[in-house]
Write a sequence for this structure.
């Protein structure tokens, strides 16, 4: 019996491309479509309609669970994902959660009520996945956090190495002569991303033979302008002789810079600031923000590709780490 793999081999195209043609998807070139349809006709190939029917019993939706309402990087990724999914037979459905909520509990409920084809998680906590993810039962991809060591099935991941990237940011401050460095990040008790980036900060301090005083040099906040503004005020009260600050997101960095300005401090003349994410606003902020740039378009594209391969071809989940870039900007000076 002729299979889809036989059609792929004879046509010279991948199984995924053949499947898209058979499902009348639009994301196939006219040349490929014509060639594959000719091979299908030559072999009198008939798709397995029973399997197709079973797949279609679920809804044609892909759920995007976004953890946090003020994350501008996530906003960029969501926009890219929506554009990609809308070009297929599936419909994207976006749900926003508070950064302290349990994303896996929401996924369990959504998978039972809406029966989506798959779920894309933007942000997530390992403990939630390890404890409950086996109840989700559909292909999923964790975006911007690494899930390789979560020990769960049906979960792929694509992310920046948060530890290495944060270490790079603090290294940059040290190379500019700074030693009195403060850090603004999330609540380390529940924010996995903050814990990973904090780990990178500590590695940088240790590399430079410096001891980090968490009590006086770390201030936690929500990932928002307002939260970071107050965190910067608190940090200056605890450590008024700071010369530089690493904020764990660009939104936090901009909120911190505004607080410094309102306190009569200049960036970078009095205090240097470096952020994380590389959002568009960072390029237009004054001064142009020094930051760690994540490749949000690549993160979005790979997450969708991974999910569709798991949904359409039952591929095993894979885990990828996407390179980051240090953007020197204008908000860090040499001392």
């Amino acid at each position: 019996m002729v299979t889809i793999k036989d059609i792929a081999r004879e046509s010279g195209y991948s199984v995924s491309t053949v499947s898209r043609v058979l499902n009348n998807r639009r994301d196939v070139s006219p040349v490929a479509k014509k060639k594959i349809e000719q091979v299908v006709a030559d072999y009198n190939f008939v798709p397995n309609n029973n399997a197709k029917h079973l797949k279609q019993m679920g809804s044609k939706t892909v759920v995007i669970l976004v953890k946090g309402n003020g994350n501008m990087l996530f906003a960029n990724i969501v926009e890219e994902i929506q554009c990609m999914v809308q070009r297929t037979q599936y419909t994207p459905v976006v749900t926003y959660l508070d950064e302290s909520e349990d994303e896996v509990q929401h996924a369990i409920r959504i998978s039972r009520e809406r029966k989506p084809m798959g779920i894309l998680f933007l942000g997530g906590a390992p403990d939630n996945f390890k404890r409950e993810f086996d109840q989700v039962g559909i292909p999923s991809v964790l975006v911007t956090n690494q899930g390789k060591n979560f020990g769960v099935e049906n979960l792929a991941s694509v992310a920046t190495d948060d530890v290495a990237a944060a270490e790079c940011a603090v290294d940059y401050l040290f190379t500019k002569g700074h030693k009195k460095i403060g850090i603004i990040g999330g609540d380390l008790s529940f924010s996995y991303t903050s814990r990973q980036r904090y780990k990178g900060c500590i590695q940088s301090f240790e590399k430079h033979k410096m001891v980090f005083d968490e009590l006086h040099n770390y201030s936690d906040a929500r990932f928002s302008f307002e939260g970071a503004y107050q965190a910067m005020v608190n940090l200056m009260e605890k450590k008024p002789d700071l010369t530089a600050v690493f904020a764990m997101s660009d939104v936090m960095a901009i909120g911190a810079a505004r607080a410094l300005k309102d306190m009569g401090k200049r960036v970078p003349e009095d205090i240097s600031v470096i952020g994380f994410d590389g959002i568009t606003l960072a390029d237009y902020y004054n001064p142009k923000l020094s930051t760690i740039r994540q490749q949000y378009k690549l993160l979005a594209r790979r997450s969708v590709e991974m999910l569709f391969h798991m949904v359409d071809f039952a591929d095993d989940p894979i885990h990828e780490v996407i390179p980051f870039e240090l953007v020197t900007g204008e908000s860090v000076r040499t001392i």
Summary: Residues 296-313 form the longest helix (18 residues). The two ends are 73 Å apart (CA to CA). Residues 53-57 have pLDDT under 50 and may be disordered. The chain has three domains: 4-54, 59-159+296-322, 163-294.
